[in-house]
Amino acid sequence: MPEIRLIDENGKQLGVMPTDAAIERARYMGIDVIEVAGNAKPPVCRLGDFGKYQYHQNKKLRKQKAHSKTGEIKAVRIGLGTAKHDLEMRFQLAKKFMSKGQRVKVELKLVGRQKGQIDLAREKIEAFLELFGKGNLKIIQPLKRNPRGMEIIIDKVT
């Protein structure tokens, strides 16, 4: 890097200057030269305390991670013998999860001879999904069969 664009601690641009001059200026002031945008032409650097800069970057990252927890998946299990009222209770639970921004995996567990009754299983899941109403649901992962039964991942329409 023969030249860099330098910004001081207060955000004021000091202009384009040789890298050596910027480092010398930082040493004189007792602070660091921090590369902010290395892909720019010329690269953008800032004068400041590197530890403080790192702290603020980590703080931003933690804040982003806290907001990205909405991708968490909650599971709601139903069976072929699940009664209508129990389905409605599971529906309320799924609705609560989705209102918090979480995705819901609807699992239909099949045991023994039930594994041969795929049509009934599909109907049961469709009956559960109909409780949400048309247009209020986004299917993230379509209905698929797994060794324990069937599952589908849903989310609310945003």
What does this molecule look like?
This protein has helices at 19-29, 50-67, 84-99, 118-130; strands at residues 3-7, 13-18, 32-37, 44-48, 73-79, 103-109, 137-146, 149-156. The strands form two sheets. Strands 2-1-4-3 form a four-stranded mixed beta sheet. 37% of the residues lie in helices and 34% in strands. It has two domains: 3-67, Ubiquitin-like (UB roll) (Roll), CATH 3.10.20; 72-156, Translation Initiation Factor IF3. The model has no long low-confidence stretch (mean pLDDT 87).
Question: Tags for this entry?
Answer:
Translation Initiation Factor IF3; 8 strands; 158 residues; alpha/beta; four-stranded mixed β-sheet; Ubiquitin-like (UB roll)
Q: What is the overall pLDDT average? A: 87
* Biggest sheet strand line-up: 2-1-4-3
CATH class of the largest domain: Alpha Beta
Poorly predicted ranges? none
Please report the number of helical segments. Answer: 4
Main sheet summary: 4 strands, mixed
CATH homology superfamily of the largest domain: Translation initiation factor 3 (IF-3), C-terminal domain
Q: What is the strand content?
A: 25-35%
Q: Count every beta strand, where a strand is a DSSP E run of 2 or more residues.
A: 8
Which fold name fills CATH's third level, the topology of the largest domain? Translation Initiation Factor IF3
How far apart are the termini? 46 Å
Please identify the structural class as seen in this structure: alpha/beta
